[in-house]
Design goal:
The chain is of the alpha/beta class and about 200 residues long. The chain has helices at about 20-35, 40-55, 70-80, 100-105, 125-130, 150-165, 185-199, and strands at about 65-70, 85-90, 135-140, 170-175. The longest helix has 18 residues, at about 40-55. The protein is globular.
Length: about 200
């Protein structure tokens, strides 16, 4: 069984008053002034989706995985640390770091911005909290949304966490040479293999 919920501000969860990115910007700012963030809302929604999956009789509750591409990848590594029911997670083409965002003056998706986080760590530090559960990340070498210089440092941070957890083999990643922001055949093959092996 596959569940693919719409994120707030997308598809059937758009506003009749604000169109496209304007609604996402409004919601992000509304959460910020309330002391929350869009990331908080996305994590909450993803956890409710897993509640629903777990309520279905046809779902094997000890074999639930999560896959996301682009902003869906952000949702994947965001929810992972706080959702132990996810046994295997795969993110495709999205691990922007604050270091990269600041270096390249990159404007990114609102779920990537968590107020106050950078004083404690960066986005790979969040993904690292998924250890020791299985995690695989795919990247395109030329993906402008995840500058590869910082990605290469970020995966080292994650790998250290898995090493410390005693299960370094549970983390893997793939950087596709010359590729941009896409789901390639090789990326999909590695995604399927990770789920086959870990679920």
């Amino acid at each position: 069984m596959v569940l693919c919920p719409d994120a707030l501000c997308f598809e059937e969860r758009q506003s009749p008053h604000l169109q496209g990115g304007a609604y996402e910007r409004f919601e992000f700012l509304r959460y910020v002034v309330d002391g929350k963030s869009m990331a908080w809302k996305n994590i909450l929604d993803m956890r409710r989706a897993i509640d629903y999956l777990g309520s279905r009789p046809e779902v094997q509750k000890d074999r639930i995985g999560c896959y996301g591409h682009s902003m869906g990848s952000t949702h994947t590594w965001l929810v992972g640390p706080w959702e132990p029911r996810l046994k295997c997670l795969v993110g495709n083409c999205c691990l922007p770091t604050y270091a990269a965002i600041h270096r390249t003056h990159l404007l990114h998706c609102f779920p990537n911005y968590i107020p106050g986080l950078f004083r404690y760590g960066d986005t790979p530090d969040i993904a690292a909290l998924i250890a020791p559960r299985a995690l695989h990340l795919n990247f395109g070498e030329k993906d402008g949304g995840s500058p590869i210089e910082e990605v290469r440092e970020g995966v080292k941070t994650i790998a250290r966490s898995y090493q410390q957890s005693g299960e370094p083999e549970k983390f893997s990643y793939w950087i596709e040479e010359g590729a941009g922001h896409l789901l390639s055949e090789e990326m999909w093959a590695r995604t399927r293999e990770k789920f086959r092996k870990c679920l």
